[in-house]
Specification:
The protein has 302 residues and is of the alpha+beta class. It is built from ten helices and eleven strands. It comes from Choiromyces venosus 120613-1.
Length: 302
């Protein structure tokens, strides 16, 4: 629609008067995952519209507000953010909560696309710049593991908590955190597994204070232009995780962990090899594969 625009004010926690896909019928879908339950559209006016399943109490604008007020990390502006219930009956029962966002479309190229065309000097500058951003994040701490708004942590990454468990937090002590981390495996009928958990608990490293963690630092979430980082996106999973979580999560990114940029960034981060080892063993104990469980048990024989 020629000349149409959306109000560019601080985030409005409510929908615009006209749904963005009706206001901009020629919007282009640029991302679709999980059977179309997560999609992003380029509205063609410098804004993106995206929707995804809603996580109770978690709003990206709250995360962005915290990042913007405490760091120099470039992030997109969120203009509208709202939640709808889709598929409920005439009495309002049932249905799925859908999270909607209209946000700035930062003009930049995903780092994984730009990297092959950068010279070594530009590459080193990006690594330093991103390392500085991670240091800024690490200075934002919390006495408990929790969401940004102070509620329970939604671990959609399924690393800290098994099966995407939502902890009843905030978790303010490491004993409570351990119980949440081992919630399912503690029900194993195997005495050997139970002893392995006791042995693993004995070597658990410090987790607190919790640190503000992006938790999805793929190169596709880093936008660059003219040899500099101009945007870091994908903050929907950000929360206060154990202080070692950003480091550990990188090793769960498959081939992404071997990208030269990621390797260089990791070399600048505080290293937590013990936490990486602990989470690898715990992941194996959680497995339904008997060989994985046996491997974990062997690692913990004292």
């Amino acid at each position: 629609m020629s000349g149409a625009s959306l109000d560019q004010f601080p985030t409005r926690h409510g929908p615009p008067q006209v749904h963005p896909l009706k206001l901009y019928p020629e919007a282009t879908r640029v991302y679709s995952r999980e059977g179309g339950t997560r999609e992003i559209y380029d509205l063609g006016n410098g804004h993106l519209y995206k929707f995804r399943p809603h996580r109770h109490g978690v709003f990206e604008s709250s995360i962005h507000d915290l990042i913007r007020s405490t760091t120099n990390i470039p992030i997109p502006t969120i203009y509208h953010e709202w939640v709808t219930t889709e598929g409920s009956d005439t009495h309002g029962w049932g249905g799925v909560c859908v999270h909607h966002i209209i946000m700035e479309n930062i003009q930049g190229e995903a780092l994984h696309n730009a990297w092959p065309h950068l010279n070594s000097r530009d590459g080193e500058r990006l690594v330093r710049q991103f390392g500085d951003y991670l240091n800024e994040l690490r200075r934002i701490t919390s006495p408990s593991v929790r969401s940004v708004n102070g509620g329970p942590l939604h671990d959609d990454q399924r690393i800290l908590f098994d099966r995407g468990y939502i902890a009843p937090g905030p978790l303010s002590d490491e004993g409570s955190l351990w119980l949440a981390m081992t919630r399912h495996v503690r029900h194993s009928p195997s005495d050997t597994v139970q002893q392995a958990l006791i042995n693993l608990r004995a070597v658990m490293i410090d987790c607190l204070p919790a640190v503000l963690t992006h938790i999805d630092l793929r190169t596709s979430n880093i936008l660059v232009r003219d040899g500099s980082i101009v945007g870091v996106v994908g903050w929907e999973h950000a929360a206060f995780y154990p202080c070692w979580m950003e480091y550990v999560k990188i090793w769960y990114m498959g081939n992404e962990a071997e990208h030269p940029f990621v390797v260089s960034v990791v070399n600048r981060m505080p290293a937590y090899p013990a936490a990486r080892g602990l989470m690898s063993i715990l992941a194996a104990l959680r497995s339904t594969n008997p060989l994985m469980v046996e491997w974990a048990i062997q690692q913990l024989i004292i």
